[in-house]
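User: Modeling request: complex.
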Amino acid sequence: MPTIESPFQYKSDEMHCEGVALSKIASEVGTPVYVYSRSELERAYKAFDAALEGIPHKVCYAVKANSTLGVLSVLAELGAGADIVSYGELFRWQKAGGDPGKVVFSGVGKTETEMVQALKAGIYAFNVESGEELFVLDKVALSLGLRARVSLRVNPDVDAGTHPYISTGLKTNKFGISMEESRDLARAAAKLKGIEIIGVDFHIGSQLTKTSPFADAIARLTALITELAKDGIKLTHIDIGGGLGIDYGKGDLVPSPAEYGAAVREALAPLTALGVTLVTEPGRVLVGAAGALVTQVLYRKRNEAKHFTIVDAAMNDLMRPALYGSYHPMKPVKDPGRADITTDVVGPICETGDFFARDRNLPEMAAGELLWIGAAGAYGAAMASNYNTRPRVPEVLVRGGSYTVIKTRETYEQLIAGERLPQS
Ligand code: LLP
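Assistant: Request completed. Predicted assembly structure:
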């Protein structure tokens, strides 16, 4: 549901993004199309940054949430750093004008090639996730005559209370290093010539709706940092990952960045006093509310059990409902005041999992009408695929009364560009 602050608002019964009617974008660019608001990207970044005021900090935007160059460039211009999980994301970040010196590199499976590329680019830190990775990174850095700045990703064994697929801070998850092993590894790292150990980090999950798991994890890492200081290992930062949730319009109570900032400030106080600085890796909270997917109704049908609204977007364009059963707000682009019916909003893909909503109360829409699917700026376009040989959809960035196509619709020729027929 568009909230008061949302950039998506009805004007004369027609949904706009900032000053541009969505129907104008749809008729000029076609559907499905992702629409982003530049002012909302700016508002979200500034609100998050301001919530941490007074704590020396870096906001390293998690590129995976939305990696379109036009979106990255807005965040880079605002002064953001980046949290990357592949060389591909570093490549994009630099193409968008982002500073490699403000990049942290997360992920359990960095290859040696990626380590070389990131070291040469001069990234700020590697978030190392295992002992084996640490020793490989040491070897790679030495081979280049460089030292890799390293933070150890600790698995604090804290329950983030979110969907199991996006919960990452439990000891049953593949992420990070146990508290016990982290101590030994930090001591070993301090002796390696190719490594400079500067921090510890965690990321406990995504779409968190409480601040207490962040505070619990900070407390656990504070104990570790204090213990290492006694060994003469002085860490200069703690990276608390991303994870702050957003409102998907289902009435979930989500902490505001200000509430999150207050909880973090309180939990961090003992470390701030020791001169330890903060790194954060927010993704969803910076880009989620700024984006919507606009799709056209193709057909309706009713069988004995259900009513279906078939739209031209599908699970390959926005995968979250199919993958996590996620809820996204939906509204007709025009005339929202009609009576509701209960319907399943589905796409053209040949899978029962290809749905955007089940048993949703929505104004009854006719074929040809446009549907707004909100809160789709994060993990929407970034997770899109070509399944069913569907070209990936265009993306536009609105600024005030005008917009830029920041990604054109893929062509069929682009889709098959790398493919060859067998020669024998
Ligand atoms: N840092 C690390 C190491 C991460 O793995 C992630 C997200 C983030 C930061 C950013 O988290 P955020 O602030 O966006 O919650 N595809 C799923 C979300 C997967 C999140 C993966 N890691 C979804 O659509 O809900």
